[in-house]
Amino acid sequence: MASQFLSARFIGPFEILERIGPVAYRLALPPSLAAVHNVFHVSMLRRYIHDPSHVLDPEPLQLDESLCYEEVPVKILAKETKLLRNLTIRLVKVLWRNHQVEEATWEREDDIKARYPELLEQSTFGDESF
C-alpha cells in the first residue's frame, strides 16, 4: 500500500477545457496521465497562483545537418560507488550542455570513460583523480 506522505497532494497546473456541471470540470491532462479520468469535482481543484519562477526560458539547441541533437557532457560534478551483492559499480554525476545543475544525471563511469575519455581525464576530486 502506498504511503500518503510520499505522493503529491496537488499536481499541475492543467488547463480547464470545460465546465461539466455546477461542481465538475474537464481538464486537459498530459499523456503521462492518460489512465486518469479527466473530470474532477471542484473540491479536488485549486486555483493556480502565478509564479514567475515557473516560466523557463528555453535554451537554443544546436542541431546537426540531420536535425539531430547530441547531448554533450560538460563536467563531472560528483562520484559515487554503489555496492550490490557481489558487484561494485562506480558512478559519476554528469552535467550536460544546455542543462542546469539540477538536471545532472548519474551515469556509469565505464560508459562515460568509453564515450568521453577526455572528460574523466580533466576531472579531479580532492587528491583523487579518475
Automatic annotation (TrEMBL):
SUPFAM superfamilies linked:
Chromo domain-like (SSF54160)
| Name the record gives this protein | Uncharacterized protein LOC111025333
Where the record annotates domain Tf2-1-like SH3-like, the positions are 6-48
Ranges for the Chromo domain? 75-122
One of the Pfam families matching this protein, by short name? Chromo
